[in-house]
Amino acid sequence: MNPEQVKSSLNISPAIRVGVLGFGGLGQAAAKVLAGKREMTLVAAADKEGYAYTESGLNAQNCITAYNSQGSVGYLEPSGTLTTRSIQDLIESADSVDGYFLALPNLPNNFIASVAQEFIKSGWRGVLVDAIKRTSAVEQLLAMKEELEVAGITYMTGCGATPGLLTAAAALAAQSYAEIHKVEITFGVGIANWEAYRATIREDIAHMPGYSVETARAMSDAEVEALLDKTNGVLTLENMEHADDVMLELAGICSRDRVTVGGIVDTRNAKKPLSTNVKITGRTFEGKISTHTFILGDETSMAANVCGPAFGYLKAGIQLHKRGIYGIFTAAEIMPQFVK
Ligand code: NAD
């Protein structure tokens, strides 16, 4: 008996076959996370220049080596393909992927929505999960709810750290209160070198005064470095346009103007500049005003706090999909499931 037959004879469901789109900082971390899971298998990975796909599973380290030494997972032998239409070509050729994690830059601000459109057009059915950040980007996806429903796609949006883990924590903490006054998210990110997470850093710069998604996208690597030189590698972000607000509003927890997001990103030091936390202030049914605080452990990296939840929501999305529940859901309305 092959391993799948053994599992089916023991009544164990086969592992969820996962594709990772985007193979930069988060995509590679996602592959490493999956390597330690038995309920999920990495079967596909794509970057800007190619993709790799094999139904029986890809070796995460081989994908990472091909990407870092040659520039694309498309160089992987024998499962790689070089193409500048990697996402479309992968969707067309990979017929056994249950769900994809979109670890792609959302540059321009409608890029992930356009990728979702590609999935809808292709006729593929399954689960998509993103770790998208901006309110306006999540709103574009929410507007596609009916198209996703008709296509048989269960789309989980805003399922990284913030939005994602912290938004979900706020939704849970809100249960103690009769009214929510304030949700304040403050994140600290420490990365040793900005080039490991180029899209994340560009998207963060886009939140700074005087910058936009378009100006940040157009910046060359040298321009990003020059900006980071001026700030000693530190980005301080306040009042960001972050989808935690629309997600908590949609979940009926509080209006979006009660949600604030800001943080500090140190691009030259893996140590977090501050402890990532969310504070939820509200009034209890007895009339007491109080604040719950949820603080992430300082040792947990951005990658751990994004990829863990993304796959937890992917697993939850698979359960919904199996029950014929399609459309779009946010991290604030569904509980993630722990992936073993
Ligand atoms: P990155 O720049 O390190 O990597 C991006 C990858 O996408 C690269 O492999 C690149 O080749 C690939 N890519 C780009 N365009 C492509 C295309 N057209 N087709 C196929 N592949 C393409 O990115 P990153 O820093 O890992 O960030 C990924 C995303 O995750 C960003 O949008 C970022 O905002 C988001 N993010 C979310 C959270 C959260 O908590 N929600 C936290 C961090 C990052």
Quickly list its features.
340 residues, alpha/beta, Rossmann fold, eight-stranded mixed sheet, five-stranded mixed sheet, 13 helices, 13 strands, binds nicotinamide-adenine-dinucleotide
Strand arrangement in the largest pleated sheet: 4-3-2-1-5-6-7-13
Total of DSSP H or I helical runs spanning 4+ residues:
13
The first-level CATH class of the largest domain is given as Alpha Beta
Largest pleated sheet: 8 strands, mixed
Residues in β-strands, percent: 15-25%
- What does the radius of gyration come to? 20 Å
The CATH superfamily name of the largest domain is NAD(P)-binding Rossmann-like Domain
Mean pLDDT across every amino acid position:
96
Ligands in the model, by name, code or SMILES, are: nicotinamide-adenine-dinucleotide
Any idea what the CATH architecture of the largest domain is? 3-Layer(aba) Sandwich
Brief summary:
The protein is an alpha/beta fold and 340 residues long. Helix content is 37%, strand content 23%. An eight-stranded mixed sheet has the order 4-3-2-1-5-6-7-13, with helices on both faces.
